[in-house]
Known about the structure:
By secondary structure, the chain is mainly β.
Amino acid sequence: QVQVVESGGGSVQAGGSLSLSCAASGQIFSISAMGWYRPGPTIRRELVASIDNSGHTEYADSVKGRFTISRDNVKNTATLQMNSLKAEDSVVYYCHVRGYSGGPSSGSFDVWGLGTQVTVSS
């Protein structure tokens, strides 16, 4: 089985920065993509930023130029550096990981973390 754990949330004033970390562990053969999501106005979870195994990144328009996602393929971790935070960024952020697992239960996996809270005060 694969587990995903987020860390790094907290409280900050508007204009400040926070860094979120996501760590995937377990019987992982390879990871296709890692991404950060948050609740959206019309969908349950909207993409904030993602990075695939070739380093290709995607960002929501609302965070372009402020957030940066990076990944450590050896440690199976992803980091979301959030700068110039705004009050509207206050929400729970979820990490999502897709890939393939090894071992007895080999096959594709698609796992969400439990989320980490970000609070930005104006």
